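User: I'm curious whether this sequence folds into something compact or stays loose and floppy. Could you predict its structure so I can see for myself?
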Amino acid sequence: MNSDWLSSSTPFDSYLHWADENPRMFSHPDWSEAIRSLRGEPIYCFNQKLGIGGLAARFRRSGLRIGFLGFPIAGLDWCGLPTATLEHLAGGLCSAIGLDLLRINLPLQELTVPRMTSGKPESWIQSISEWRSRDKKKLSKDISFAKRAKGQFEIAESLIDPEACYFLYERTVRTHHGKLRYSKPYFSKIASISESNLLLRAYSARDEKGTIHAFSVMAIDGGVGWYLHGGSDQAAKKKGTTDLLLNAMITDASSMGCDRFSLMATPWEQSGLSSFKRKWADTDGLAVTIDYPGSIIGHAVEAMTRFSNRRDRAAAISFASSRRPAS
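Assistant: Here's the prediction. I'll summarize afterward.
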């Protein structure tokens, strides 16, 4: 089953040829440093039969070998594949790189996916060029306010102070009762990668003393701009600085050839954050996660994960059903 897969801890010719065809940050060799900063093992994978690949991230947790096909999301190449094909490919990859469980996060889904483990709301701009031409009174008003209120804030195209950005991220996550998934070393790597690789863009808002009040990070992957991270303090929130950062990201994504921009997934319970994202987006859908077991213990982990994510899954199914036209 795994004979179609090529995999290595270092990039190889067929992988690089595929990755360079359509610039993909999450498959770029530079992204391996971000994975390593989270104590993951990057593995370059390429399926010879389909001619597509991905930079897998393998993590070891309590003796388990858990992998992601693409981190944090799978590329768009994987999103349109039939369920049976995905399952076959996942089984082969689990065998090829030695996994107990393979997780595939599929973004930009309009409906649910069979055998999904969980699903969360995702908002995106389907076409930046069309979106720009529409009348967006509320958004235009908010951007104008943010420009006037900016005052001494300077918008810089770098993280400047990765540790300060991490603390803003940490505070934002804790305020929303979320889960901290990223670390200080990770933010340091993000800062250094963005200095040399145009596919990863970082933005900071600082005052005249150099204090960072807000930041955002965008990745370019597969012709889509992805809003990876962001955070702000109360001073920046009052000034609407996040609106300025988002406007800069969308402008840069468009200038780099992207016609789609995703604000990425949001937990169902964070309705305020979802509302903010929908202010910018013109399309609502789902980010779907599928877990594929590669061993007996992997089956047990999948079952436990499905149980713990049952509310997310039910909310996703309800959301998709409300969008499905009546027969």
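Summary: The first helix runs from residue 13 to 21. The first strand starts at residue 5 and ends at 8.
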